[in-house]
Specification:
heterodimer; A: about 375 residues; alpha/beta; ten-stranded mixed sheet; 14 helices; about 40% helix; B: about 400 residues; mainly alpha; MetI-like fold; 2 domains; 15 helices; extended
């Protein structure tokens, strides 16, 4: 009995010193890399501000470099000078960074908080942890928006309306990369949803997708930044265009533009954190402390108050409430809402991780023709 | 001596077709805006021809004629398209009226000698037109930015409310955003801290280098000059990548000093070039005279040489300042988020979120540049006048 107590006390003392030591060793500043714009603002509001209230001594610097995160992390690694502490990337980039050893592998149940009901993080996030280095935050989708005043009385309801120049004449905005465009082209060329990646693996399949895109090529404006399509739609330069659903939400609800969503065949993707490999101990300790807080159930649900992306934890979904400024219910604007997700397309990260370089080259060559 | 008689201008064969052409041009622009380019083209040609005919036959006074045309077109524009049409119509009416008298009274020959052939006159006017077009081409993008920065919407779009000059369509909110948003304020503070420091280093080192390299006895002058100028010639992205890896190794990457040094390296060539150019006109016997009278080299430099080459130093410094203030590539590599400058913030802002705040910032920067250049020019003239180098 006595010895048990001694062990317990010993353990408590050790734990106490451990906590103290950890506190003392945490770095005071942290550089977080994200996408800028409304998305970064939602992260600041939902994660960084509340964290700073708890730890006023911490300075958080934001760097809007997620777009070139892979290239920059490679350069930092070569220069031996990692200046970033936490990097927000999409799933495919996280897989690449993990494969190259530039991102740190982690144990979800150790690093992330369990759900309020005690479900361990690994189960709460479930399949969305697509890589050993990836800490998912949100589910977003790439989908189409169209000008309600430029489509006549029959608004588009089907993804293939994008390829129908007779029914919906005018310019379209598509992303300047093969991902999503090739899949949509094959879907509208009669390929069944389940066979898309099998077909796209073959030379003929790739030619077939490009041939379908050829039919609208001279009516396409290619975008490379998420802000382009909202600007083009607001200008009336395009009838319809693809972009991230949160951008369209902001265009429709916050900027009151005559635009509506075409949710058909929306492509889900993930956005989340990676920790760069090789961080010094003090900085790593600070990042871990921040992540434990910023990825818990309530914080992920809070982010949905500012932007219409679905939280990656299943325990967060019931907590999603109203928009912080507009006061509208956010649930119906989530890509995962049943009314919006009637027909979704599952984007195959691992397939693209293998084929991306090859298809990028082919796509760019096709664009230049 | 026989008085030169003004050549008669053929109204029907010369003025009418040209005026029809000008009218067609405007008609095409207006027609395109209303989705009927060819109807606009035809109507415009007709309007131009009729206008010149009426003005030449019935209104001899150019001033009255131009005023009448302006009012007439403005009223027509107002009837068709409201306030926006009023302004557009007035501009078109003024230009067409003026053009009509310019052609009909033979004033288009004003700048050419009397013996010039029609082809020479044509070339003279075409040349003037090309100059004006180049001017327009350079200025138009900058001028477009200014009204757009007062947009009430969050897009780079001329809204219908803006085009009809509705006060509702305009707002100062993007300026407010610039002055209240911590991101922009931080970027402004960084730029204001980095650019002067980089300029100071560039001017000091660049002037010294230029003076040294202008001495005929310095060995390998051309080679040294080429190396010092190279940051201007090597593509910026190459310098930036090189600096990134070098600065990372020595711990300067992501520091204030690192960015200042990088910008100074980019600014030095400008100072060297402008100061070397001024030194060509500097009489070296003045320094010998000063030495003869007992001045040491430092005194000679500050009392004799420096005042004379000051215009070159100032304009070099100005170039160095603008290089640092405008630079985005190198700072993206060498800086970290803590050294985010205005151009960096504009660059990411444009990519991630097309917000007219960028246009508001651009407008402010344009105004500051104009003020700065005017100030420098006034100072330069004043100093030249004081030294009796220029008559005015």
């Amino acid at each position: 009995m006595k010895s048990k107590l001694a062990i317990l006390m010993c353990g408590a003392a050790l734990a106490a010193t451990g906590v103290q030591a950890q506190d003392a060793k945490m770095a005071d500043s942290m550089t977080i890399v994200s996408w800028g714009g409304a998305y970064q603002k939602s992260q600041i509001n939902a994660y960084a501000e509340p964290y700073k209230e708890k730890h006023p001594e911490v300075e958080i610097v934001w760097d809007e470099s997620s777009n070139e995160a892979v290239a920059k992390l490679r350069a930092m690694n070569e220069a031996g000078n990692i200046t970033w502490d936490l990097v927000d990337v999409v799933a495919a980039d996280a897989i690449r960074l993990c494969d190259e050893g530039l991102a740190m592998e982690y144990d979800p149940d150790e690093l992330l908080a369990p759900a309020p009901d005690g479900t361990p993080a690994s189960e709460d996030f479930g399949d969305l942890i697509v890589s050993d280095c990836y800490i998912p935050q949100i589910v977003y989708s790439t989908t189409f928006g169209y000008r309600t005043d430029m489509v006549g009385d029959t608004p588009p309801t089907n993804i293939c309306d994008v390829f129908d120049l007779e029914k919906y004449p005018g310019k379209r905005a598509l992303e300047k990369r093969p991902i999503n465009n090739m899949e949509w082209a094959l879907l509208c060329d009669g390929v069944a949803k389940g066979d898309v990646y099998d077909v796209l693996e073959t030379e003929e399949g790739q030619a077939r997708a490009l041939a379908k895109l050829d039919t609208i090529k001279d009516q396409v404006i290619w975008w490379s930044s998420g802000a382009d399509t909202p600007q083009l739609l607001a200008d009336g330069e395009v009838v319809m265009g693809s972009t991230y659903n949160g951008r369209l939400f902001s265009l429709i609800e916050e900027q009151n533009q005559p635009v509506a969503m075409l949710w058909d065949a929306q492509v889900f993707d993930l956005d989340g954190w990676i920790i760069p490999a090789g961080l010094p101990e003090e900085r790593l300790a600070r990042v871990k402390d921040f992540l434990m807080f910023a990825t818990d159930t309530q914080r992920l649900a809070d982010q949905a108050k500012y932007i219409s992306y679905g939280p990656a934890r299943s325990s967060s979904a019931p907590l999603v409430g109203k928009h912080a400024e507009l006061g509208i219910e956010m649930a119906p604007h989530m890509p995962t809402d049943p009314a919006n997700a009637k027909n979704t397309f599952l984007y195959n990260y691992t397939w693209w991780a293998d084929y991306r370089d090859d298809l990028d080259a082919k796509f760019q060559a096709w664009l230049a023709q | 001596m026989r008085k030169f008689k003004k050549p008669a201008v053929d109204l029907i064969r010369f003025v009418l077709p040209l005026m029809a052409l000008a009218g067609a041009g405007f008609g095409f622009l207006v027609g395109t805006a209303n989705d009927a380019p060819f109807i606009g083209l035809l109507l415009g040609a007709l309007c131009g021809a009729v206008l010149s005919l009426v003005l030449a036959k019935f209104v001899p006074s150019p001033r009255a004629g131009i005023a009448a045309a302006t009012v007439l077109f403005a009223l027509a524009g107002f009837a068709l398209a409201g306030t926006g049409g009023l302004i557009g119509g007035a501009v078109i009416g003024f230009v067409l009226g003026w053009l009509s008298y310019w052609l009909a009274t033979g004033r288009y020959r004003a700048g050419t000698p009397v013996y010039a052939t029609p082809l020479q006159v044509l070339w003279h006017n075409t040349f003037k037109f090309i100059c004006a077009a180049i001017f327009f081409f350079l200025i138009a993008p900058i001028v477009t930015v200014i009204p757009l920065s007062f947009n009430a919407e969050n897009f780079f779009t001329f809204t219908p409310a803006m085009l009809s000059f509705d006060p509702e369509g305009y707002s100062l909110k993007h300026y407010r955003d610039f002055f209240t948003n911590p991101d922009w304020q931080q970027a402004l503070a960084n730029s204001v801290q980095i650019a002067p420091a980089a300029t100071l280093i560039s001017v000091t080192l660049g002037t010294l280098a230029a003076i040294g390299l202008s001495q005929p006895h310095v060995p390998f002058r051309r080679a040294i000059m080429a190396i010092l100028i190279s940051p201007m010639i090597v593509p910026l992205i190459i310098s930036a990548a090189g600096m990134y890896f070098f600065y990372s190794r020595i711990g300067l990457q992501g520091t204030y000093i690192g960015v200042v040094l990088a910008h100074a390296a980019l600014g030095i060539p400008f100072v060297i070039i402008t100061v070397t150019a001024t030194l060509v006109g500097f009489d070296q016997s003045l320094t010998r005279a000063a030495a003869n009278m007992g001045a040491d080299p430092v005194t000679t430099f500050f009392r004799v040489q420096m005042p004379l080459i000051l215009p070159g130093v100032i304009s070099g410094g100005l170039f160095a300042f603008i290089t640092s203030f405008d630079e985005v590539v190198v700072v993206l590599f060498v800086g970290s988020a803590g050294q985010k400058t205005l151009p960096w913030q504009m660059f990411t802002g444009l990519r991630e979120q097309i917000s007219p705040t960028i246009l508001a910032v651009a407008t402010i920067l344009v105004v500051i540049s104009i003020l700065l250049l005017t100030l420098v020019e006034l100072l330069r003239r004043r100093s030249e006048r004081l030294r009796g180098l220029s008559p005015g």
